[in-house]
Model the fold of this input.
Amino acid sequence: MPALATVGGAAGAAGSARRRRPLSRRRHAWVFLAPSAVILAVFVFVPLVSSFVLSGLAIDVFMNDVSFAGLDNFRRLVGDQRVWGATLNTLYFAALAVPAQMVLALAMASMVSRNNRWCRLLRSVYYIPFVCSMTAISIVWSILLDPNMGALSYLTRQLGLGAIGFLKDPALAMPTVVAITTWKGFGYIVTLLSAAILNVPASLDEAAQLDGAGPIRRFVQITVPVIWPTIVFCVVTTTIVSLQVFDQVYIMTKGGPHGSTETLVAYIYNRGFQTAPYDLGYASSIAVYLFAIIAVITFVLRRFVLRRGEDEV
Amino acid sequence: MSHIARISAIIATAAMTTSLAACGDGADPGGSKTEGGDGPVSLSLWTVFTGSDGDILREIVDKYNDSNDKGITINLDIMPNDQLQQKLPAAISTGTAPDFVLFGVEFLPTYVASGSLEDISDFWDKTGVDPDNYLERVVQLAQVDGKQYGTPMQYNLQYLYWNKDLFEAAGLDPDKPPATLDELADYAVKLTDPDKNQFGLALPVDASAYPQFFWANGGDIDDPATNTNLLDSPENLATLEWAADLAVNKKVTPQAVTGSEADTMLQNGQLAMLMSGPWQINGLRSQGVDFGVGPIPGGSAGAFSPEGGCAYMIPKGADSAKRDATYDFMAYWLSDEIMKEWSVRNGFPVFSKSAAELPEVTGDEVLKSISAATTIGRDYNLGYPLAAQIDKDAIWPLWEAVLTGSTQPAEALKSASEALDSILAQG
Done:
């Protein structure tokens, strides 16, 4: 997760600014940084730069007859209805998935942030879906939710509700994908938030308690402000991941029914690798467009929406 | 700069250059495939036979590996068609493609257009296999501009399958399938029973098997010869309204069902009728379903069924030893023995004239029905490089919109026609 690396890097830089490290220690730092630097270069920076370059070319996956296309791919993008549909679907997904995961995780974290056996067990249980592969989870859920053969539709039929096409109904498909994503992802956020909650100084809580504050008030006015940097981190990373949603959509709905779950990454994949003429140039231009969306949203989130609390801490 | 910094910089630069060089290799796909000679030859084959027919294909390949005296071994890699079509272009451009491939002829023109397949027109002369022994149409399916790019593996149309037990339970004659689209609609309603979660007819949203409905009423999709859009016609609108009525109002088809889900439903008795290829037969037999198979029902303009088939093809860059070895297997496939085995065990129509006269073939009931239903074939964009894009970007979304009821037929037809215009503009 690039954002994780950035946060860690920032903390390290702040530390080293205090006093100069001797040369030999800096050499050691290079040794430890080198493997990640190589991996990041090969799998993040090179593809990133490549997609910017490719977006200006007329190029297919066979890489024959490559020519310079200027801004043609971006002009085509502006007139492509599917790009706008996919943009709305992606934003819709993020607008549902980020609050759902944050609220659920915050609620759960507030309940399991005690260091006893039961809470530790619950935290592990919530974490289990997160370590499973999204592909496997998506396949299992598609089978469970199948309106004709799935276990869930058997139950709804027994209850007299009829078969419900959770992934087949254009209105239900995206909320269903969001629900499954939330179920898979919130355990990770619970782990981060409960670690932060456990670090809230007990003295603050006790002082507020003596002043007569109830549990809800203490949570809102003591816990939340203290763990605010962790909340900001979770919101930003969850937003970035949500805007790049792909696996679950690809496996469960293939972007359907009727394009209602086609996200930007799914459409990039579709243009570049799924549908002839495998237009890599055009797919890359959509990738650059998505990069811009993520950059703007992340900037706005950090700079304006989540700023106040961060300053307080 | 310290030693270590210098070394890591060198490693990083090397890694980047390597990955860039790998991209650059694309201009000369398959350049690294030099192996073979007089010794044993090992061939990799990618294919899409994920159903029970894949087991039979594997048996035949194993038999070939054991029996051929040239030391040829074929390693079969079976994957879903979607996956193969996504992997192969990248594999070809990076020189890591398999030695030969086997998939639907409808995908062939795209690869030919990008120069990714070997011209194998010399196959007939080199192997001594007589092209005139095979139905001319089938041999032509793997040709583009008169050049042979594949050898036929199987040939098929779309057929109507029906569950005889469900017909009887609904008071219909199990030996009399619907002959017209009106009858099909009528039967579909009678065979639908929501209480039993039973559907009369599946109209999958991801199937390419829809031109037959347009053709039956005198409509069409496009003319590849002139790049003309024929979609937005009153005949097609009538067809779509008929389908919307069946799917949305009468609910005879499972909601947004996919082709593979429909296959499963037909096999487990939840579905009474389905239009599909011969690959259904083996699955239905193994599930013990009492089924009938016959021609696609017709409309006011007649009955037509889109042609399809699979072919063996060789990605660009094969060396001569591997190419000769592949020819040997292709010729083996076209022998009477294998043609007969594949058709009798799977129910595929026989396209070899000599094999068609073998007693095992002439005496097979399912093959008789299939052969009788194989006379109404019609070419749907075969050999047309834009074919796959037309289906994926215009025709499938059109049917999905109509069948799910998310858009009115007239509006859906108009936007599909606009999408088709922009695709045809590339031609």
